[in-house]
Structure formats: C-alpha cells, structure tokens
Write a structure and sequence with these properties.
Length: about 325
C-alpha cells in the first residue's frame, strides 16, 4: 500500500515470518464479504502496472492506472499472510483525509500463479523520510500544517470505534501527496483496541521511534505509544534545515537505544531548535516524548495545540 522506495540507511521493521499461521492457511482464502470488502473487488484486467517504485517485505509497489487515474498498486509475491488480511480489513474501514485511501483489491482465480494486488491512492511525493531530505526546508507554517496532518490522522485512529493503535509510526510510514498533504500508511502492525482503557501486550515496530514502555518483557501500553513515536517524527521534521539530517538515534544499535532512552531517559538533541523554529513546538515535543505515558498529551490535545499555533502564523 506504500508508494516508496526502500531506504537502505533506515532501520526497518522486521517482517513477520510467512510461516506464522501456516497451519491455518485454508482459512486465509480471501473472503471479501466476511471482510466487508465485497464492493471493493477490482478485476485484474482493469489494472495497468507502470513504473516500479518500491520493494520490501513480501510485496512490490508500482505506479499504476485504474479507471484513468494514477494509483499505487502493491503486488504480493506470496499468498497473503494473516497480517496482510488484517491490514486489508482495517484499510477498508478507514475514511479520513490523513489516512491513505484504500481503493480496492484484485484477486485472481489462482493466487499461487497470479499475485493479489492491493490498490490505493498514489501519494506522488513519496514518504516523509525522503521528503524531508529531498525538498528544501519550507516555512514554519507549512511544517506545522504537515505536523497537523499527521496528528489528525493519528487522532482519527485513536478516536474511532473500535480504536486503533498504529504501533509503527515513523517518517517512512507517512506519505506525502502532490499537494504536500501528509497521510498515514502501513497498518500491518496496527492493533485494534475494543476499549480505550485497556492495555495491550505485545512488542512490534522499529526501535528508533518506539516508546520505552514497549521494551519490557511483557509490555503493557496504550495509544500513548503513538504519541511518543509522533514526537520522534516531529523531531525529524525539525532537522529539515540541517544539511546532515538524522533520523532518531541514527548509527546506534538496539541495545544502545534501550540504554539511552529507557534507562537514562535521554531524548534526541533539541539544541538550537527553539531559535530556528518556535519554543511552543519544542515544548510540545518534550511533553509528547515524556517517559511516563500519563505525562504525554493525547493526539486530540496535540491537534488542538497545533491548530492554535497554525492560526497565529
């Protein structure tokens, strides 16, 4: 579903083994009706693949055409895993300007010979990881607007019923449209929560952006892990002016990150950022990556603060 190239220098979320759930393989037949997606099936002949723009995990991503419009086509090299099907079901239920729009799925008669293809809107400016590195630093107002897009997308996930924790919020999972609108993508690791008060127990994601409560042997966490990760993304955006841009904890291994973030409670350097941007943004950032989840704002509060800042620019 992501229209991007693979970043060789960025730590990757390790793909789950395709052997997971093999004993249940007969149940992985794509039943669009049970997924609530019966109206989203696209005949393979209606799709045209053009340029390959990304590759990773178990799929390749192409620019394609569907009904005369340019789209992103994710072509799976193997049968869909349980994680892929879960992502499909989630995507079909989303409807928000800051979530990548799912258009449909193409299921061939023989999925072992012809790949399943997932079709979504094309975000022609790629992902935020590349965008920050390839586009000249915009105005503070534009940076705040992109931050707002991300915050609104996460707020939507957290406030919908059932609510969703993304769990892998990072710059390469945020896509940018031709109009520079940010949209959240890649829901393969997202977790549905039936109750806003309940805690979740499982460890996933990319350590560099992760909240420290995820690193316990038996982690318990809630939506605030996305708030922490979002702060790391915002910090990346504040490096926009820097010719030697960094992602969080670049060059450090996982164990070093566990020590510096978890045990020592350190955060990426904000030296000089108050003068370059504005103190309110930095203060918000510091609250968002607080060590104690209870001290972090909700994404709704982040949206409110950013809207206030945007109105003053």
């Amino acid at each position: 579903m992501r229209s991007r190239r693979v970043h060789q220098d960025e730590p990757r979320t390790p793909p789950l083994s395709r052997d997971i759930g093999r004993e249940a393989e007969p149940e992985l037949e794509l039943d669009l009706e049970s997924l609530g997606l019966e109206d989203r099936e696209i005949p393979p002949e209606k799709l045209t693949k053009l340029e390959k723009i990304g590759s990773g995990g178990f799929k390749d991503v192409y620019i394609g055409k569907f009904k005369g419009r340019r789209v992103a086509i994710a072509e799976f090299r193997d049968q869909l895993s349980p994680m892929d099907i879960k992502e499909l079901k989630l995507l079909g239920g989303f409807d928000h300007a800051n979530i990548v729009r799912f258009l449909g799925v193409s299921i061939p008669e023989n999925t072992r010979e012809t790949p399943v293809m997932i079709v979504s809107e094309l975000c022609s400016n790629g992902d935020l990881f590349d965008y920050v590195r390839n586009v000249p630093a915009p105005s503070l107002h534009k940076v705040i607007n992109i931050m707002l897009d991300i915050a609104r997308g996460l707020e939507y996930l957290h406030m919908r019923k059932p609510s969703v924790i993304h769990r892998d919020c990072k710059s390469s999972n945020i896509l940018i449209t031709s109009r520079a609108t940010a949209k959240i993508a890649d829901f393969g690791l997202a977790k549905v929560k039936q109750s806003t008060r309940s805690m979740v127990r499982s460890l996933v994601g990319t350590v560099n952006w992760q909240a420290p409560e995820l690193w316990h042997a038996h982690p318990k966490y809630n939506h605030k892990v996305d708030v922490f990760s979002c702060a790391m993304v915002y910090w990346e955006m504040l490096q926009w002016h820097n010719p030697n841009k960094k992602f969080p904890w670049e060059g450090m291994n996982e164990h070093a990150i566990y020590e510096i973030v978890g045990a020592k409670r350190q955060r990426p350097s904000i030296s000089g950022l108050r003068k370059l941007w504005c103190p309110e943004i930095i203060e918000l950032l510091e609250r968002m990556w607080a060590h104690d989840p209870q001290d972090r704002p909700t994404m709704s509060e982040v949206v409110e603060e950013l809207e206030h800042l945007a109105s003053q620019r």
